[in-house]
Fold:
Amino acid sequence: MDFINELLHDQNKVSRNLKKLFWIIGTCLFLVGFYGWIVRINDGHIKANYGSIVTWGLWVAAYIYFIGLSAGSFLVSSMVYVFNYKKFERIGKLAVFTALVTLLMALLSIWADLGHMGRAWHVMVYPNFKSPMAWMIYLYSTYMLLLIVEIYFLLRYDLVTSANNKTLKGKIYKLLSLGSKDTSEKSRVRDKKIVKVLATAGVPIAILFHGGVGALFGVVAARPHWHSGLFPILFLLSALVSGGALLTLISSVFQEGWTKNREIVVELGKMVLGLLLLDILFQISEFLIVYRGGIPGHVAGWDLVIKGPYAWVFWGWQGFVGTLIPLFLLTFKTRKSPQWVALAGFLIAAGIFGLRLNIVIPGLAVEEIHGLTSAIYSHRVDPHYFPSISEWMLTFGIVGFGMLLFGLGEFFLPKSYEANSHLSSEVKI
Amino acid sequence: MAYIFDEKVGRRKFIKKLAATTGSASLLSSTGCATWGSEEREIRTDPVGLEKWGREAGEWIPSCCNMCGGQSGILVHVVDGIVEKIEPNNWNPNNYSNISTDFFDGYTEEYGTKEGGAICPKGNAGIMALYDPDRIKKPLRRRNPVRGLDVDPQWEEITWEQALNEISEKLKKLRENNEAHKLLWISEDHSFTHIQADFCKLFGTPNYSMHSNLCDVARKASFKTVVGDERPLADFIQSKYILLFGWNPTSAIKWVYLPRILTRAIERGARLVVVDPYLSDTAAKGHDWLAIRPGTDGALALALSHCIIRDGTYDKEFVENWTIGFDKFADYVKDKTPEWAEKITSIPANKIEEVAHDLATIKPACIDFWSGPGQHTNGVQGGRAIAALVALIGGYDRPGTLILPNTGGNKHVEIEPGEFAEKTLRMPRFDELEKFPLGHKSGVYTQMFNNIIEGKGPYDAKILFCVFQNPVMSVPGGVRAVVDAFKKLEMSVVIDTMMSETAILADYVLPGTVYLERYDLNTHWVTWPSVGLRQPVVKPLFGQLAEYETVIALGRKLNLMTKDGKKFFEISPLTGEKVEDLTKWYEDYLSKELLEGKAKITLQQLKELPGAVWVDKKGTEYEKYSKELSSEVLQKSYIDGNAIYDRPKDKGGKRIGTIINGKKVRGFFTKSGKVEFYSEWLAEKKDANGNPINPLPEYRPRDWQPNEEYPLYLINWKEASHTHSRTQNNAWLLEIKGYNPIIMNPVTAAKYGIEDGDEIWLESPYGKVKGKVKLTKRIHPEVIGAQHGFGHTALGKSAKGRGTNTGILNITKSEPLSGMAVHKEVCVKVYKA
Amino acid sequence: MDKHKIFDRREFVEYLISIGAGSLVTAVLSSGLLNAKTSSIVETRPLNRVKRKYHYGMVIDTRRCVGCRACVLACKAENKTPPGVSYTVVFEEILENRPNDKPVFMTKPCFHCENPSCTDVCPVSATYKREQDGIVVVDYDRCIGCRYCMTACPYSARWFDFGENYPAIEKDTDWSKVPSPEYKQFRKREHEKSPIGNVRKCTFCLHLQDEEGKYNKEEGRWPACAKTCTGKAIHFGDFNDPNSEVSILLRERQYIRLKEELGTSPNVYYLI
Structure:
């Protein structure tokens, strides 16, 4: 404890150190990812450990995790840009940017998971409107466009004002400003309006597509573990929890960290606590109904979660680390300290990944027909699944990529949040 | 650059643009819409590929399978010299039924049998045997004088010419020293056996042995003594009550008609009862499973006989007219009550009563047994008890019972060896087959290997030829006995397709052929004469000689001659003219066999028959024993006592009949011409250990009984997935059975604290092996077992290290009457690894 | 709640409304999808509901099946499927409380359901049920390999081609030259090319149909599993033809289908 206190004494130093750590980890993970990508590109799926029984693995879990982070972050940002919730103003852009970065991470994950990466465009050309997956893809494509446009208008003024031909930064800003030169007050008001429209449109889209991801699983009647009406709601809730939690962490490290964002972090902590409690409520109701209902097919999935070979994911990772400790940190005195809240945010965000794994894999690992997995002697026909090295590496790489992209964005993009926040209080739409 | 987001464009315009973009996106989508939900859609096809590789391309060549010894008919699709697919041959009875009426019902020349044939998984997987990358491709010569299963032989590739020269040189030397009998030759028992037997005969060794003594010679011996025929065949399909002892016909398929006729019998109302320590896949189809202690089948059969005789429900007409020794037998079983048998077999007495009642009252009933009861030291007598039970219910040669064989189509033409060979041919056999009163011509492998090691044979063995056999894995305790034996030989030659555990020990390894690369004639094991052709559908992949060609080539190099001074392997057996080509010579040899046999056609004519199979139109005959011999047959016959032969006995005459009450009928080919409950002939004999033999089918416990230290019986069995120990490198078969779990009853496992999936040790006084446990109530609680054939240390990359070889735990020993290897007589202890 | 005043109340309500609206749309959307599936549970449709030329299906006699797995390998030999891909499997069902764990053998190809749950989920319509004969197929050129259909099939009848090969192909023996006749496309599996990276499944060996879409048992143009079956347990045919073997069997015998409750209406029946 002394060590931590001492460390926290010089808050700026801590913040700097944390950022340094962030860059180091991000770079390492990114580099590690090359191995995963090379294996994926060269050998296809041979080195992956999923099979024809557990046919979705780490990458799909990572996908729904990242996309949840994205939806969650975006919805938090919408509090600023749709509902004018001013307390979060300072991190508004950061939240939107986080949503974009995590969305890209999600798309990379699911792209790697495709049997034919080169055919991703088929979804646009050969649509099947009966497929929840097709809908999900259309929705997140729209969402991505929307995010990009929104970010542009959020940053346009700053880009234009900082653009020049002298420094590297200036050149980048010029490029990113897409040639716009208008710095008039009028244009800023217009930007603001566009952002509001986009953000407003974004809310139902984010909810739709992430609820849609839940529906994608929920409609699969063949998998009792997924086939629950609660799924779309559960997905949304855990997205909000994980997104909010990630933002607590981010806002205590970036944009001058907790020294400046103290209030926001603590405020976010409260929100995350509320959402987390709601999420737990839903989880428990799902759990109770499954066990009280007692239908073997339904129970089997949950049995795997709580008693299976990877029960530690549920009890240790998701339960203890990702839920219990953060609950403690967010409820007791620590809830007022941004450092502890940030830690809680980190743990929750990490814990939700366990939750994602526990949705995807147990749903598939239950034999659909008893005795099926012993009918063929093949490692592809096996209910046991643990991701292979290359699967991990690729996933780490995506995390590293996300971290670097985020770091670069945070570094390069103008830090005029002060001015902007100042303005936003004046401009009324 | 005209940027769109400046105020000149304005919001309205921006939105318009946006709409336009999305509009174009949806337009793009709508091009796909034509195919959306489009059930009429056609997937593109490849007409070029169809022409090159489709069913109409290439040839469909009829042949016979040899993935196991079953020899079922196959059709092989060959395109561009590549085997594309193997399918059932619809004209071959072996793929359909063993009863002619069933076979011919709906049969057409054009399409074959009504329902079409079948082939088992192994037959389908023949392609993977042919194209196994681990096959031996070139003749190999050993450089490392040290021998062992884990010793690198340091192979050196040599040419065929060199290999044949070196081997024949050594053979020549042996022969010149008048030691021809010191050549031991072992082979598989369904392929090219005749030519190997001829070679051995002309070379001058009496020591040609075959696989059968590892398989079913106990069954052969049991039936031989009781009904005078070695291999009666079960007519399941017409039966109404089927009792099987230790046989798993639907899974250990062999003849692929078995699953069909057995399940069809059940469908037509037959009751199937299976006696087996393991609820085999056959028992899974049955109505009742009698979980018996291993090696006690004889006791059960005696108790069943007891009940039937006690109740007077036996077939009195048959017993009176067609059996001898009934009174002695009835007397013997008087105290063999169900209660007596319950103690021995662990089958409840009331269950025995029930089965006895059904057996005697449901007609026709079919009783049969195979290797289960036979592979113990009391195997033959146990089998005789079952054969006697069959006689009690009149269960021979009637529809729906055990049919006396009437096989054939080709005939092994007897040859007379030259004088030089005669001398050594008269030497006793090295494996002391003569000591086994019911020994089979296939010899006694266990005794042979033991004699080599211990030097106790009638003479020293010097050279061993091992063709298409892997005794290290297939002889009980082979990992010790066979390895040690190979160390003592002067030279050993193995001909095989795979680098088996045995091949690794040899001085020379010659690449063999897979059945798709060679010829053979297959006498089909159905109840009427039929012979199928195996023919090369592709050329040997590595330009290697077929096994028979190797034999012919060696025979030529050794100048082997028949009595008339002709070089046997150089002149055509058909035309008597000199033939250079090895394959052509063998084709003529096969033609000769066909012409001399029942088929009376040439090889070429056989090839042209539908499905390349000759089937006698006369079909199955029943109650042959009561049929009087025709005057035509009798004219050429030769009579010895009451027995009638087709030729003088010393000239290889075959028994064709018996004189009973003055009538010349077929009868049974026993001494009395009738079914013998009591064998006078056996009474005069001693077993291999020098002990007297009970002429009645007595029950005597097998030698090796469980004790406190080794409390569990260990058995093994075959399943449809693999043939013996030779298919475990077949990639497809490994996918349907990748290893052999140790099967154990949960009650037993609980006693030893063993759980499902645990690794355990099995230990006997002879060794210990590790295995993975599968718990199931399908096995008798006192017994553990596993599928035979796994646990390879060689054979191929895929086979290595899979599953467990329980043969390690066994002793190299045979049943003392028949020479049957006692694979199933082991007791072990188990503990967690 | 007052103590941790996260939102201004009005804003909070607005926010909730927004979430609610989104959820509602999601719910409507997904319920629409569900409707399409569930409607079939209520209706019982006659077999020849769809107007089409043929209605292929199988009737598998569990009493005749001996569990030998010849069908599994005949299928492999016919379709040249790679390791781990097995369009049909034989599983041993151990019925609870059945004495001695006596198994029931069942061979399980694709059921080519009347209401397949796999086709509707495909995001690119790569897998669909053919109008002319009801066979569920995969268009390898279109399939992106997302494997959603595999999760949606309640019978595990779909398999992903990971690109693995048997040693005979890895080591370039003659066998590696043989293409798969599937869909009459005669593809050779080459690195990263379809069908590697695709979802694969039983096609009732439709490549053996003639131009008109008919099979012929006598000529061997018949599903490979049915052809090789050692117990002659697999009956194949056209349910539209009242005199076909399969129609007669359904008329005369007792049968079950697997997981009827899901409303998929399989075209493979098990005689019991």
Chain B has five domains: 1-27, 140-215+412-519+537-597, 217-403, 624-683, 712-832. The two ends of chain B are 77 Å apart (CA to CA). Residues 1-39 of chain B have pLDDT under 50 and may be disordered. The longest strand of chain B covers residues 767-775.
